Every structure is written in structure tokens, then in C-alpha cells.
Amino acid sequence: MRSLIIFTLVGVGAQLVDGALGMAFGVTASTLLVLSGVASAQASAAVHLAEVGTTLASGLSHWKFRNIDWHIVLKLGVPGALGAFLGATVLSSLSTEDAAPVMAAILLSIGVYVLLRFSLRTPPAVKAGTTKHGAKFLATLGLFGGFIDASGGGGWGPVTTSTLLSSGKTAPRTVIGSVSASEFLVAVSASLGFLVGLREQFFDNLPIMLGLAVGGVIAAPLAAWLVSRISPALLGTGVGGVVVLTNAQKLVDYFGVTAPWSTVIYGVIVLAWAFLVVLAARITKAPAYVPPGLDAAPRPVHAADDAR
Predict the structure, then answer these.
(1) What is the pLDDT of residues 181-212, one digit of tens each?
(2) What is residue 230's three-state secondary structure?
(3) Among the ranges 10-14, 169-173, 186-190, 201-205, which has the highest mean pLDDT value?
(4) Residue 283, SS3?
(5) What parts of the sequence cross the membrane (predicted)?
(6) Is there a domain that residue 303 lies in?
(7) Predicted confidence (pLDDT) per residue in 56-70, tens digit
(8) With contact defined as beta carbons under 8 Å apart, do 195 and 86 qualify?
(9) Tally of CB atoms within 10 A around 220
């Protein structure tokens, strides 16, 4: 019972991060599970299966708070499911260590771009619920993101959320909600692929999976509510910081950088991130950006105004 409570709390924490930032459930949950004494392989297998429940709850919650563009969900999620199944069944037994530093460097670059873009200037006003992304672009991104997520043990959120945010064509809350909803398709497909590959061993992690799923379902509505209330500048800065810190850790571990230099690196990243969060908070209070040639939208007239 004690272990189940611990895994449930891990699920709550991981889902709050994932639901609010559109990424990092797998990274957060796996890290917390390993810290609590769970073997790395068990943690990874349990997280994939638990995401079936947590992503469903997260998608429903984001739908309730109108954070979803269903065109993005379908055009991104269906190819993502295909890529996840292929990655789980074909590459689950292959080593991805050589590809890890390359992917980390790419995601780190995207994270830096997103971090600076949303913290140093006011993001363009974008109408939530619409998308200018083409079907080919979303399908390619989904296929690649799903493949990386299943074969590399995670990465759907960092790949898809970072890329969509960096393009600046869709409101951050819509990107996060749509990516979270489409991840349900990826999680189901990846779980089926791992079920085919691991068979009976896959179900050895049911207690861990159950705790993660329960905690994630509990936290999903709160996370969706938070993303509907936080400003685009703060959301983008938060996402960028998570991507930078996560992938910097991967590169530090890969190149064998140890203390005190690793501590210095993490300290510099955290301090810079905190500084940019302060800038993003100031941007939030600034007037909304209006493209040249367009007038600001008129203030809506309320019944109380007419009464005067």
C-alpha cells in the first residue's frame, strides 16, 4: 500500500508538469521512480503503459478548457501512433545510445530558441483553436516524434511541443492541449508495440503503472486549468526551460562531466532560466502585440455599459 501511494504521488507530480507544459511526463515519472528505488527498465515500461490513462484524462481535461485544435490532434497523432508502434516493435531491442547525444543537441537548440523567443519579446497574438500548420508538416513531425518516443524511451512532448511552439503559428495553450490529446494515440500504439515485444514481462509492472495512472488522472484537470490561465510568455518560457535543462543533463551524462563542473552547468542554466522567467512575467503585463497595419480589437460592449 505504501508503494502504491508513492507511485500515485509520482504520477501526480509528473502529470502536473506534462499537462501544464505539454511534455515531460515520461522524463519526470522515470526520474522520480528511479529516485524511489525502481529499476530503470521497470520505470520505463511502467511509464509507457500508465500514459494510456493519463493522456486520456489530460486530453479530456484540455478539451473541457478549450485548449485543443482537433485538426492538429488527428494530423499529428495518427502518424505519431504509427511511428510509436514501429519504434516499439522494431527498435525496442536496439541501442539508441549513439543517437541520444545528437537528439539531445537538437532538442537543446530548439529549447533555447523557444526560451528566448517567449521571454525576450511579446509573442504575436494568435487565435486559439486554429492552426496554420500544413498536414504534411504535422504528419512528418508526428511520425518522427512517435518513433523517437517509443524507441528512445520518451520524447513526444519535447519533439512536437518545442517544434510547434518555435514556429509561432499556434497559441501555446492550443499547442500544449493538442499535443497532450494526441499523445493518447501514441501511448496506446507504443503500449501495443511493447506488449508484442515484451509479452508477459510487460505486465510485471502493473502495480507501478496503476499508481502512476491514478496520480496522473487526479492531476490532469488541475494541469489543464493551469494551462488555460497562464500567459503565453510564461508558458513558452517554462517549456523552453524544461527542454534545455532536460537535454543538457543528457549531454552532461553522455560526455561524463562530473562535479563540480556539472553543478556549475546546471546552476548557470537554472539562474538564466529564472532571469528569463522574470522577463516573461514583465512581458505578460505589457500590451498585446498587434501586427503592423492592424488596429487593436475594440473593447467588447457589455450590458452594463449600455445601461449607462
Answers:
(1) 898 899 888 888 877 776 666 676 677 777 77
(2) coil
(3) 186-190
(4) helix
(5) 72-93, 99-116, 137-156, 176-196, 208-227, 264-283
(6) no
(7) 877 887 888 888 888
(8) no
(9) 27
